[in-house]
Structure formats: structure tokens, C-alpha cells
Amino acid sequence: MVELKTDASIDAMYETGQVVAQALTAVRKAADVGVSLLELDEAAREVLDAAGATSPFLGYRPTFAPTPFPAVICASVNDAIVHGIPTGYRLRDGDLVSIDCGAQRGGWAGDSAISFVVGRARPADVHLIETAERALAAGIEAAVVGNRMGDIAHAIGTVCRGAGYGIMEDYGGHGIGRRMHEDPPVPNEGRPGRGMPLRHGMVLAIEPMLIAGGGDAYRTDPDGWTLRTTDGSRAAHTEHTVAITEAGPRVLTARD
Ligand code: MG
Ligand code: MG
């Protein structure tokens, strides 16, 4: 069931979304060659703690997971697409890092992700990340009253496929509200004009996950969490929590 949020609820979700935005900004600032993924997790924890927020990631255990998630961010490096567990791994020159972060505060959840390179970036990685950002922007632009879910999916998929990239199969965005994962699913590829009509008060986490090699397949690490490309190519992930309103899409996790 899709829960439509009131304007007051959307305002409250914006406050939570801004905590996520600040956490990602802090992680981005802390990330550098030689910095460990655990240190990035710590940077995000400090922001959540200072804001009086908790993490919907920490302790999260969906049915597929062998263990509760141990961190407040997912840190996925190079061929890791999503759900990477922060470890003592120290970032190397040219690593492509995807950071996903969530927050829970005042009864509302927020969810957002960024990809970036530490040190000297390969042109191919810059293009992949820019395409992921364009795909997210296209999805957000299509998140308007009068459109349907398929319009968001089609907008994202068109940007990704147009650049020759793969789209991670089986995974996509989701509704978000009191809980991080709510109905409806938000696919990253689809047919325009199809699916659920978009209405004022729907809040969606829109999140393209791109695979540089062009295939859509992924595999799971022995840790049961980290999802990687099967061809060893790199991946990028971008995400915003977005409210659909009569005045247009409102990005609740927008960063300065
Ligand atoms: Mg996320
Ligand atoms: Mg999400």
C-alpha cells in the first residue's frame, strides 16, 4: 500500500533528509587516499549522533542477509555496486567509491547515495559517475503529478542505456516514509506511460545503479552483503529521497 504524506510530513522528512545530506557531505570531505572505509563510517556516525538521528542501516537484516548490517553507511568500492560493508580497507589512488547513507529522526526516514573518485580519476570513471548523476536527475525530473511510475523508470533507463551502461538487475528504488523501505518499487528501467499514477504526497527513493561493462548481472560476496559486477567492471550509485508535489519534485536529501 502506498502511503501519501501530508505537506507537514514532507516538511518533517526534509529535516531528516538534510541529516543524510550532511552525513554524505562529511563522508565526501573525509574520503581521501589512505583513509579507511571504517573512518568514513565514523564520519557519518558523528553527523547522525550530533543530529539526534539513528541509522536505519545499522542492524538491518533483510531475509537475504546472513548477519545484521554492522554500519551506518554502505561503502562499495570499484566493482562493488551496492551494500558494501565498511572495513579497514584504505582507499587507493583512483578508487571509485559509492556511499549510501540513511537516517531516522522524528519518526521519518531519509536515504541517499553518492559516487565519487578519490585521488586521480580515470576519465571512464568520471563519465560513469556523471551518467549516474544525469540518470538520477532525469528520474527526478519525471517525478511529477500526472506522470506514471514508468515515466521515472524510462527516464533513468534511457540515460543509462544511452551511454552503454548496464542497469543492476532486480534492484531499484522504493517508497520511503516512516520506514526506509515502503511501497511502491521504483524500477530503473521501464515503459513510459505505464504503471502507478504519481500523486501529490508520494515520497520515493530514486536510485540508479550503473554497471560500466554494460551487463546487468551481479554476484554476492561471501560476506552475504556486498553485491559486485560479474565482469569486474566498475559501478556507480546515486540516490535521492524525493517528494512528489503539485509544485514539482522536492529533493529532500539535496546537498548544498
Ligand atoms: Mg540508499
Ligand atoms: Mg534506497
Any overview of this molecule?
There is one protein chain. This protein is α+β, with helices and mostly antiparallel strands and 256 residues long. Helices cover 28% and strands 25% of the residues. Helix 1 runs antiparallel to helix 2 and helix 3 runs antiparallel to helix 4. It is built from 4 helices and 14 strands. The model has no long low-confidence stretch (mean pLDDT 98). The chain is globular, with a radius of gyration of 17 Å. The relative contact order is 0.20. The strands form 4 sheets. It has a 5-stranded antiparallel beta sheet. It binds magnesium ion (MG) (2 copies).
Architecture blueprint of SSEs:
Layout: H1 7-30, H2 37-50, E1 73-77, E2 80-82, E3 96-105, E4 108-117, H3 123-141, H4 149-162, E5 166-167, E6 173-175, E7 182-186, E8 203-206, E9 209-211, E10 218-220, E11 227-229, E12 235-237, E13 240-245, E14 248-251
Antiparallel strand pairs: 1-3, 2-11, 3-4, 5-9, 6-7, 6-8, 8-13, 9-12, 10-11, 13-14
Helix pairs in contact: 1-2, 3-4
Bound molecules: magnesium ion (2 copies).
